[in-house]
Amino acid sequence: MSFVGRRDFLKHSAAAALGLTAMSNLRVMGANEQIRVGVIGAGGKGVAHARHAMGLPGVQLVALADPDPGYKMGAFRDELLKRETPVKVDIYTDFRKMLDRKDIDVVIIASCNHWHVLHSIFAVQAGKHVYVEKPLSHDVWEGRQLANLTKKTDRIVYPGHQHRSRNCWPEVIQYIKEEKLGKLKCVRAMCYKRRESIGMSAQTLTPPTTCDYDLWLGPAQEMPLKRKRFHYDWHWVWNTGNGDIGNQGVHQVDIGRWLLGQKSFPERVFSIGGRFGYEDAGQTPNTQIVYYDYKPAPLILEVRGLPAEPSLRGMPHYKGARIGNVVEFEGGYITEDAAYDNGGKRIHKFTGHGAENHLPGFFKTIRENNKSLIPCPVEESHVSSALCHIGNISYQAGQAASPAEIVRKVRKNELGAEAWRRMLEHLVVNEVDLNEVKAALGPTLTFDAATEQFTGKDAEKANPLLKQNYRKHWAIPEIGA
After folding, report:
1. Which CATH code, of 3.40.50.12500, 3.40.50.720, 3.40.50.2300, 3.30.2000.30, is assigned to 6-164+362-369?
2. pTM of this structure
3. How far is Cα 393 from Cα 412, in angstroms, rounded to an integer?
4. Is residue 323 within 8 Å of 193, Cβ to Cβ?
5. pLDDT tens, residue by residue, 417-454
6. How far apart are CA 329 and CA 433, in angstroms?
C-alpha cells in the first residue's frame, strides 16, 4: 500500500487521501469467523494485549511490529514457538510492512504516546479496525484530527479506556443522580503510584543497537537522552510522554468526567506541581494537582509519585483510594465501587469489576459492526486525553512559587486549598522543603471548547503547547471535521 504524506493530505480531501472512500464495503464478520490480529508496539502492554487476544475465541494473533525487536517482541515470538502447540507469528521492525498485509483485520496499538495518533491513522488508511491504548493522543491538536477521522470511516476505532467497561459505573451514575448522599461537591481522580528516579547520565544515552531509532522517534524530535534506561522512561519526558497524568491518571480523569456528566471541557483549568524528592532526567511532575473548573462541581486530579513515608514503598491514600476515583457529597462519599457516610461506614456496595471485558468487547463490536458498543468513543477519549494535556500545559506555563504564594492563589477555592494542604503535608513527610525546591504554580487558563484553544490571559504562552513540532517526514495530517 502507499502511505500518504502530509502534502497529499493537504492537496486532497481527508477522506480521499486516507482511502476512506473505498471503505464503504466493510465486510461484517460472522460469529465463527477468525479475526486476524497484528500488534504495533510489542512492549509490556502490547505483549499483554497479544496474550489476552489470542486467548479469545475466534481471534488469531498473526503478527507483531516494534521498532526494537530486541526489547520484548523477539522473546515473545520465541516463547510462542516453544509452546506444546507452537504458535507462529511474524515479526516486523517497520509497522508499515505489517499493515501492507491484506489478511490482517485488526491492529492493536500499544506504542509510545507520541505514536498513538499516527499509528491509528495509518492503520485506518490500511483498512484495519483499531484498538488504541490511552492516552488517545500526545497533544490536543492531534487528538482532534483522529476524532475527526473516525467520523469519516466505517472502521472501528476503540480506545483503551479499560475502566469504562467496569460494571459499577452505570450504578454509581444513577446513585449520583438520585442524590442519596446529598449534593455533589466534587469528583477526584487519584493517581497515587510510586515512581522512582529515572536517573541522570552525564553521557547521552545511546539507543539499543537492536532499535531503529528513527522509526522509534517517528513524529517526535530527536533530542539528547540523559536518562539511564531507554524503554518505558520515555513517559517522563515531554517529547514522547505525558507524565503520570497521561500514563495512569487519564483513566481516572476519564471516569471522573463521566461521573460528573460532563461531555466537554471546563472553562478554566490550573495546575500546581513539581518533580520532587530527586533530581533526574525526567521533566514531568511526580506530584501534581490539576483543578478542572466544571460547574456545578469540579474535577480534581491528584498525582503522587513519592511514598507515604521516605522509609516505605507503600503509597498514601485518600478515603481509601490510591489509584481510582472518589466522589464527594455533603453526606458522604463514593470510593470506586462502594458508598460511605462521612464517618467512613460503608452503606452501599456496587457491582464489582469488569475491566477485563474491555478487549473482548472490542472484538464483539467488530463482529456486530456496531460503533454504539464502544464504551468510550474516540470523541470522548479525545476530551479525556486533552484534559490531561491542558492540565500539563498549565504546569508547563507555570512559575516557581513559594508555599505562601500558592496559598494566596487557592485560599478562596475551598476544595483547591484543601487539596494543596494535603499535597504540602505529603511533601513535608517526604522531607521536601518547598521554600527551597519550589513548586510550579500554573496560571488559571481559560479554554474555548468550540475552538479547542486557550483565550484571554496567558493564551499566548499556552496555545503553542497544544500542538507539538512534528518531524516533517512523520507529520500528522490535518483532517477536517
Report:
1. 3.40.50.720
2. 0.94
3. 23
4. yes
5. 999 999 999 999 999 999 999 999 999 999 999 999 99
6. 33
